Amino acid sequence: MSESGERYVSAVTRPHIEPGRLFIGGQWRVAESKGRRDVVDPSTGTVITTVAEADAADLDAAVDAARGAFEGWARTPGRVRARILHRVADVIREREDELVAVESVDVGKPVTLSRAVDVATAAEEYEYYSALAQSVDGATRQIPVPSHAYTRREPLGVVGAITPFNFPLILSSSKIAPALAAGNTVVHKPAEDTPLSALLMAEILAEAGVPDGVVNVVTGGGAVGEALLRHPGVDKIAFTGSTRVGKLAAAVASQSLKPVTMELGGNAAQIVFEDADLDKAIGSVIKGFVFNTGQFCMGGPRLLVHRSLHDTVLEILSQAVAGVPLGDPFDPATVIGPMTAARHLENVETYVAIAREDGGRIVTGGERLELGGGYYYKPTVIAGLANDSRAVQEEIFGPVLTVQSFDTEDEAVELANSTAYGLASGLCTNDLARAHRVAARLQAGIVWVNDWAMLDPAVPFGGVKQSGYGREYGPEGLEPYTKVKSVVISLA
Ligand code: NAD
User: Fold this and answer.
1) C-alpha closest to that of 271 among 162, 400, 415
2) Contact partners, residue 305, CB within 8 Å, separation at least 6
3) Looking at the annotation, which residues are catalytic?
């Protein structure tokens, strides 16, 4: 590891993230469970630290703490909650270096990405929902009898937040910030591979003035997640993860009729029309599949390019993709870091092998990069696959782009909509009418035109089809954390 890497790692091994600690009721507690799990630095394959594998007793303690804190937090005036959430954003910025270090060493994210995207966005999420915390309003309703009717938006209670490995800080903040804004309390279970920023955020939330018990963090794997889904003291589940686990999670939650939001997998198409600005389109295409080493639910791993541009685009990609800096996440020049875990790297290899078997032609990449024991895979472009290849239809979740061509707008839309997923989609065109026309026809929760990954806490995202249901971000992202109560008063 580079010298700067050593410095970053030292930030992670601070006493508060001592092995086996959970954050419950505003305190660090050694887990009741004796189970422990190693957390690995994906850029070297070495163990960074060890975290607890929480058990039922730990989870009970966390849910009890959240239940105990609920009434006080729910009654805290919205503007006071807002002030505290705003302070969270400030403390995130004050402790930016630590968060960048933790997120980069844990996920393998390039430090420039962690700083500019993950940490910056987390602060913005708290800021955004801080503003909304002051307007969790109901409405008055006109009814034709001598009475007065109004609605109240009330918090749900204890929210169980279950998050995936790829954007730990952003995707936990996208749940905790609106949950707290609406007056709920939270038990957060981060992903087993990347739990460290959740532990650091527990400390940051406390420092910012979030009262004891309002946010609790339990670490562990799928069993802890499932116990959270089943726990009778949990009132709502906010889940982000794979479609496979999401289906299991929705089935479990349905047994107690817990409301759930499901942010699941994706496999977006990027359509490049013949009238696109080619330079911009190439930039968008590359960003869309290498961003976060392709471990991006809203990535664009399927390029659909107009037949007239197909060969030119492949030629440009073969040069440009190989030149994107891949390597040590702690080197500020790095754009693509390692995959986050060995199993993700193996998964990518499996899909590239499938692509080869299906007659795909590797235009660039198609192999690991051997570097310092890390889980590196070269950004890969594959041409010549039929639409029914599993490498086209399924979510690879790595830096792999498949390239297909089309002749007409209808065909482009049909190919774009042809997978089971519907999270994001995008197109490059200089024809304004076409941009609106095609955006309306794409089956996705968000559509980008002439760039990729344009995300902001003000703009909702979420899935259709097997990408899930519910929305995060925007005022829409606050609603799942409230329930509407109607009050009707007789004036007779
Ligand atoms: P995953 O489904 O393996 O795990 C997600 C979380 O669920 C983890 O915390 C895991 O411990 C937990 N879990 C596992 N089994 C469980 C069970 N039986 N009950 C309850 N919880 C359980 O996903 P991952 O590999 O961490 O993340 C990658 C996936 O997440 C990809 O499919 C990606 O597209 C998706 N994702 C979606 C979004 C979105 O906003 N839609 C965002 C990021 C990632």
Assistant:
1) 415
2) 271, 272, 313, 403, 404, 405, 406
3) 175, 263, 297, 472
pLDDT beyond 90 at 145? no
Is residue 461 one of the residues assigned to a domain? no
pLDDT in tens, 82-128: 999 999 999 999 999 999 999 999 999 999 999 999 999 999 999 99
Domain assignment present for 463: no
> pLDDT value at position 18?
73
Same domain (yes/no): 321, 197: no
C-alpha to C-alpha distance for 431 and 435, rounded to whole angstroms: 6
Q: What is the pTM of this model?
A: 0.97
CATH code of the domain containing 362:
3.40.309.10
CA 243 to ligand 1 centroid distance, Å: 8
For the chain, what is the domain count?
2
Residue range 52-70, pLDDT digits in tens: 999 999 999 999 999 999 9
Residue range 12-36: average pLDDT?
Answer: 83
Distance CA 441, CA 419 (A): 14
Containing structural domain, residue 476: 3-264+468-486
Nearest CA to ligand 1 atom 22: 222
Q: Average model confidence (pLDDT) for the chain?
A: 95
For a mutational test of ligand 1's pocket, the pick from 165, 174, 248, 302, i.e. the residue with the most ligand atoms closer than 8 A to its C-beta, is 165
